[in-house]
Amino acid sequence: MKGIREPRLLVILVVLGMVVGQSTATFKDCYAKCFIFCMIEPDHTLCSCTTSCLKECIFPAATPQTSIHEESLGFCKLGCASSLCSKLSTKQNPNGENVEKCVGSCSKKCTMSYSLPP
Question: Can you give the pTM of this predicted structure?
Fold first, then answer.
């Protein structure tokens, strides 16, 4: 059992070192860090980790100044990302770069949808 936990600890330390060393965290960094920590927990599944990490990284901090339009765009992006991007991650690889690209395409789709006149 001890041998199984040591590689996980090493991965956590490497990821933390990469994330802490950067002044501004990108979506990719947020997602990879969240996903790795989530998958370490024995009661979490691949699906629950992808969903919760997408939510956490798409809505990083709610502020009182967030408009209804911005919130709507966020929920659109979350729905799109949950259905299209969550399948890109595996238990062994969060695949943050490809998930980030996928979420970016969702952002473009949602922005276009919400920018069109009714």
Answer: 0.71
